Amino acid sequence: MDLAYIWFFIVGFLFVGYFVLDGFDFGVGMSLPFLGKNDISRRQIINTIGPVWDLNETWVIVAGACLFAAFPEWYATLFSGFYLALLLILLALIARGVSFEYRHQREGLKWKKAFDTMIIVGSAVPALLWGVAVANIVQGVPLDADHEFIGSFLTLLNPYGLLGGLTTLLLFFTHGVYFVALKTDGQVHQDARRLARRSGLLTVVVAAAFLIWTIFIAAGRGAPLTEFAIACAAIAAVTLVMSLVFNMRDREGWAFGFGAATIVTAVLTLWFTLFPYVMPASNDIANSLTIENASSTDYTLTIMTWAAVIFLPLVLAYQAWTYWVFRKRVTRSRIEKAAVTTH
Fold this sequence. Notes:
single chain, mainly alpha, two-stranded antiparallel ribbon, 2 strands, 80% helix, globular
């Protein structure tokens, strides 16, 4: 297989990793107003992702760098055309990161409430806009003969794009609540399980509608990997339901695992629907960017492939080790003890 096609799926793998890992970060942040009934519980929730949130975000940096190097035409069209949406995502991520670092610097209630609000908004905005962006890439956007985006930010806010954004918002929210249930004890743990039941049911309905619409897009476009897209969509539906079942049985580890599998297969559904395009043109299919006309030279892709073979396993091993080190639950008693020590 041509290296350009291999790198299309490597980039997809990197975005899958980002959406799975930073996805539950977003969900944890969005769960604060529902589960954080007092400062102790809010600290307990935030501490579940305290050691890993910045590591999770590096996946999008690597994905963006690989996109730039492997598919410069795709990168140029995407980042120029989706500039405002991506800028809003960047600002939200900055606000969220600042909040994690500064929230504990003072004990004032107003101080902490302001940063909690930044965490919530900084989690919800990317969760929504990533779905809008990816859905529009799959559906296609208006491009001219030079592969330049000729729409506006409002062009992206079409029904399919908004449904994609709502789907990722709910998927990440439920995924994050599963993680809170997995990593906490006491009242927060019980509340997270109950919240996941309610959000999970809504997620099933919205995600099912989005995946069915995506399959119709794949079939209408005559995508060569439509069968794989259908299979992944079916698996995503099953794993999402299974995550709800295990959550109801108080098996939060399995619930979180099936939630992660749902995101993996949902993103793969989009990637198989997109193939062999990287950015279809909705106004004239001849203006579309494909894997072949958007990719770098074989020499560049060869160097990148060797780098990926050497460094990607090391990165995965380091991430796995980090999660193993911080695998224990964040208990309420530990937070209360730390609060007493601080004062």
